[in-house]
């Protein structure tokens, strides 16, 4: 009888422990979900200028808690409220990957007219708290990509590629990777020595800088990205990831298509305030009760942000839908949206006006 009683007590205790575990797991998931929807605070753990205009940041939880997981290639949205100004909201690719992240890394280029990048350059210091939204984005590495991977980056576009390389190094899955990194010279290549060392350590990784103005670089590193350089690394079963400014992005895509790479194997993300190139025309732009003006910006979203209307925007590429607005007036779609929109609504990141337009938030 004592044995039976002890067994029953043990089973009861085990059941209570399991129930408590499931309850705590539910609380954890609910808390993580709230963090993803509403954002959370992070503390600047470290900051370092990699060059005159490239700022490397490490962000961690103020309470030493684990951070939401993310896929290699996704971005983090930073929120800021400069004193006396409208709120700022900008997305930056995560520059490092961890299976269970305890900190995030960003590499931010200080743009001459970049409100967020200039604010960060002036304010950032260890201990500064920043409000962020959880990682998101459709541009990321998946297990099904490959078996050959070609990464093409220009400038600060190296940030998602660095994260992809770290994820691949953790789980190669038999894939070979080539990184083409375009820049003026070696000083313009962030994390350059890190890639040199990785190539020396691994036979399944090849590093190919493409330097337009570095006469002292090794001969095979000199010169712009061209058809011959691509032909040397392309294979028929290669998935290609690109992140660069518009000029390099368009040039690379043209070369890859001419080389016969299937559209389904091309994955790209543009970056920078001029990722779409300049628009054209000057038109009246009304946002609720504010009279603004469109003067040739790459998109309506750019025009709104330049004039202090910080419309939510995560991807700037027609994917996330954050910048959806009601629109009255004629517009030109410069890039297609990822989904179907209700009548009378547009994505501000995808359009420029062709006449005076009236914009308003979606109810």
From TrEMBL:
Domain 2Fe-2S ferredoxin-type: 281-363
Cofactor(s), names only, from the UniProt record: [2Fe-2S] cluster
Bilayer-crossing regions: none
Lineage: superkingdom: Bacteria
A GO MF term: 2 iron, 2 sulfur cluster binding
Domain FAD-binding FR-type per the UniProt entry, residue ranges: 37-142
Keyword annotations: Iron, Iron-sulfur, Metal-binding, Monooxygenase, Oxidoreductase
Record keyword Chloroplast present: no
Pfam families named among the record's database cross-references: FAD_binding_6, Fer2, NAD_binding_1
Name of the protein: NADH oxidoreductase Hcr/3-ketosteroid 9alpha-monooxygenase subunit B
Organism field: Ectopseudomonas guguanensis
């Amino acid at each position: 009888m004592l044995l039976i009683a002890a067994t029953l007590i043990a089973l009861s205790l085990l059941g209570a422990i399991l129930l408590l575990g499931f309850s705590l797991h539910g609380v954890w998931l609910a808390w993580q979900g709230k963090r993803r929807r509403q954002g959370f605070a992070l503390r600047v753990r470290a900051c370092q200028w990699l060059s005159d205009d490239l700022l490397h940041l490490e962000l961690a939880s103020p309470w030493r808690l684990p951070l939401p997981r993310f896929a290699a290639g996704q971005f983090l949205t930073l929120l800021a409220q400069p004193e006396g100004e409208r709120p700022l909201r900008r997305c930056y690719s995560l520059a490092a990957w961890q299976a269970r992240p305890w900190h995030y890394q960003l590499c931010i280029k200080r743009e001459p007219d970049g409100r967020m990048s200039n604010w960060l350059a002036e304010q950032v210091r260890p201990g500064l708290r920043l409000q962020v939204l959880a990682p998101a984005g459709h541009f990321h590495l998946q297990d099904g990509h490959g078996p050959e991977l070609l990464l093409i980056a220009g400038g600060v576009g190296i940030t998602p590629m660095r994260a992809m390389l770290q994820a691949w190094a953790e789980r190669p899955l038999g894939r070979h990777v080539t990184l083409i990194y375009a820049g003026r010279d070696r000083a313009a290549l962030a994390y350059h020595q890190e890639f040199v060392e990785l190539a020396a350590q691994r036979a399944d990784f090849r590093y190919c800088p493409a330097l337009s103005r570095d006469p002292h670089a090794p001969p095979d590193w000199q010169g712009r990205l061209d058809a011959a350089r691509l032909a040397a690394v392309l294979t028929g079963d290669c998935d290609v990831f690109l992140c660069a400014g518009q000029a390099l992005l368009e040039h690379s895509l043209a070369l890859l298509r001419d080389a016969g790479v299937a559209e389904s194997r091309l994955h790209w993300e543009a970056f920078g305030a001029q990722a779409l190139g300049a628009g054209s025309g000057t038109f009246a732009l009304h946002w609720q009760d504010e009279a603004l003006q469109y003067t040739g910006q790459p998109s309506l979203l750019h025009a709104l942000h330049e004039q202090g209307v910080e419309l939510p925007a995560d991807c700037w590429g027609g994917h996330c839908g954050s910048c959806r607005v009601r629109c009255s007036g004629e517009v030109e779609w410069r890039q297609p949206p990822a989904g179907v929109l209700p009548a009378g609504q547009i994505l501000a990141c995808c359009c420029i006006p062709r006449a005076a337009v009236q914009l308003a938030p979606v109810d």
